[in-house]
């Protein structure tokens, strides 16, 4: 048999398409194309269809069995025994359960948390096309508007930075020392879906919250009625900044920025939510984003305490209630997560009408 005929005969076994591509002549007799047999070939696993993703910023030790940080109560509720999924570019692995609830520790600060979130969102092991997000962690609050142990759903997320600042002594007395920088209008503040915030409050506002004797005692150092309240579930603007700002002056500036941008009253200071939300917005939009924070400190000292003393307190002078607050966050947040997952046919297409 001529060489060309032998080659065409061999190529024919690969199918009719290969014959056409190589230009081999065929006989006039019709021959059915042969389908290659892929015996034993590996198949890619279908991506996890994420219904709710819970983002925490840090954990103190292990995910279970020791002192709880921001992730442990969530982990023990949804992922105890789950196989960790390593994601290149993310700080910690992702955990998922059979109901489509996933979560991870993203890291503290804007860059740390947002880079982890982006790596997870872009990883092909997950399908986030219909996912809801709960950005969860501890925070500070001004004593005029919040208290230790409270849990707060964000109505707005505002970036504390992205502008110009100067020293107070370089300005007229009492005037603001912050000016927004042009060009950041699209990502210096986000209004979260009011319908979703409404659902979150409807489902969680009456959650019984934990408290501690140490927190009760600490609150009495402040004359403000809000500071002396027992823990509650509320809403308001969350201020995102990489700086742990302290003192009445910085607190006043945060409120000034919130009002400058048309947001609600500033009630929570934290370090990640606006940055994480920007990443989510660029991939899937913000209609399904929630930010949930628990207050573990006030953003300023009491009237008889200097800002430096508040920033670096002596032993025994810190606010109590950390353990209770991280538990409160999960108590409140799981009510919403469980409802969404338990009523998925009503939620998968978008936030239902109340």
TrEMBL record:
Q: Name one GO molecular function term.
A: catalytic activity
**Gene3D superfamilies attached here?**
Nucleoside phosphorylase domain (3.40.50.1580)
Q: Which residues cross the membrane?
A: none
InterPro entries in alphabetical order: Nucleoside_phosphorylase_sf, Pur_nuclsid_perm
Query: One biological-process term from Gene Ontology?
Result: nucleoside metabolic process
Q: Which Pfam families match?
A: NUP (PF06516)
Keywords in UniProt for this one?
Signal
PROSITE patterns xref list: PROKAR_LIPOPROTEIN
Annotated signal sequence range: 1-31
Q: Which PANTHER family match?
A: PURINE NUCLEOSIDE PERMEASE C285.05-RELATED (PTHR38643:SF1)
Protein name per UniProt: Purine nucleoside permease
Question: Which species is this record about?
Answer: Variovorax guangxiensis
């Amino acid at each position: 048999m001529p060489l060309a005929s032998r080659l065409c005969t061999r190529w024919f076994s690969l199918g009719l398409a290969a014959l056409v591509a190589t230009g081999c002549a065929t006989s006039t007799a019709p021959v059915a194309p042969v389908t290659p047999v892929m015996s034993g070939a590996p198949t890619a696993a279908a991506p996890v269809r994420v219904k709710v993703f819970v983002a925490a910023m840090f954990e103190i030790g292990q995910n279970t069995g020791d002192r709880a940080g921001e992730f442990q109560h969530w982990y023990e509720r949804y992922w105890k025994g789950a196989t960790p999924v390593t994601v290149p570019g993310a700080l910690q692995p992702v955990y998922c359960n059979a109901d489509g609830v996933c979560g991870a520790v993203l890291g503290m600060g804007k860059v740390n948390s947002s880079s982890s979130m982006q790596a997870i969102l872009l990883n092909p092991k997950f399908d986030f096309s219909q996912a809801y997000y709960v950005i969860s962690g501890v925070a500070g609050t001004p004593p005029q508007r919040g208290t230790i142990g409270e849990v707060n759903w964000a109505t707005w997320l505002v970036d504390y930075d992205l502008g110009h600042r100067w020293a107070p002594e370089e300005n007229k007395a009492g005037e603001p020392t912050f000016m927004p920088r042009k060009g950041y209008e699209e990502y210096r503040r986000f209004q979260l879906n009011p319908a979703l915030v409404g659902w979150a409050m409807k489902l969680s506002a009456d959650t019984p919250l934990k408290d501690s004797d140490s927190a009760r005692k600490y609150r009495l150092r402040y004359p403000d009625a809000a500071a002396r309240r027992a823990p509650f579930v509320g809403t308001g603007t969350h201020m995102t900044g990489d700086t742990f700002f302290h003192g009445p002056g910085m607190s006043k500036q945060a409120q000034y920025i919130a009002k400058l941008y048309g947001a609600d009253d500033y009630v929570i200071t934290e370090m990640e939510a606006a940055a994480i939300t920007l990443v989510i917005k660029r991939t899937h939009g913000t209609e399904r984003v929630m930010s949930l924070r628990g207050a573990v400190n006030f953003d300023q000292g009491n009237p008889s305490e200097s800002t430096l003393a508040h920033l670096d307190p002596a032993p025994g002078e810190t606010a109590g209630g950390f353990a209770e607050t991280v538990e409160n966050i999960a108590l409140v947040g799981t009510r919403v997560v469980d409802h969404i997952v338990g009523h998925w046919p009503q939620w998968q297409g978008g936030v239902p009408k109340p």
